[in-house]
Specification:
By secondary structure, the chain is an alpha+beta fold. The protein is built from 4 helices and 5 strands, in the order βββαββααα. A hairpin with an 8-residue loop joins β4 and β5.
Length: 176
């Protein structure tokens, strides 16, 4: 049990969040992680994005890319979507999804109708480059420019040295 000392009479209840209308939204990728699928037979890359412009600024969007899936078509669609993201932000060789954090792009959003107990939700149909290009990745933005080259090799070198067999193969990190 947790002591809350909370009086709900002093706080306005949360409003229901409406889905974003279909359209194009400029977004920034702010978080990502590999997650296990519900049935435990695969993995998907989960992406969290912030809308950065317009009336929806500050809203969140999420996407799931089924990169490891027993359905080869699902995995192919996910890889093509990831390729669209990489092309949109100008990073064609990505070793870690964190390299996409802080990058801006345009997400074409559609509305998926509600099913059963679940109401309608947003779904990203496609990605393309933003007019302004890409933002400097968040983890590097706060650091002086001269420190970035010194820190990146120090962090990346041990991983390459510890796993030369994996580096030699062309297997993407999410399939290892």
């Amino acid at each position: 049990m947790v002591a809350l000392n909370f009086n709900a009479a002093n706080v306005k209840p949360k409003d229901e969040i409406e889905v974003l209308p279909p359209g194009d939204y400029t977004v920034m990728i702010v978080a990502s992680e590999m997650r296990e699928t519900k049935d435990g037979t695969g993995q998907y890359l989960w992406l969290e994005m912030d809308v950065t412009e317009g009336e929806a600024q500050g809203r969140k969007l999420w996407d799931r890319l089924n990169l490891v899936n027993k359905n080869a078509k699902a995995a192919e669609i996910a890889e093509r979507t990831l390729s669209s993201i990489c092309h949109a932000v100008g990073k064609l060789n990505v070793a870690d999804s964190e390299e996409l954090h802080g990058c801006t792009l345009v997400a074409k959003v559609k509305v998926r109708p509600g099913q059963g107990d679940y109401g309608p939700s947003n779904e990203v149909a496609n990605y393309r480059a933003a007019a302004g290009g890409q933002v400097v990745p968040m983890q590097r933005a706060a650091q002086p420019a001269q420190q970035v080259p010194q820190q990146v090799p120090q962090q990346a070198a041990p991983a390459r040295a510890a796993a030369p067999a994996k580096a030699a193969g062309a297997t993407p990190p999410w399939r290892r």
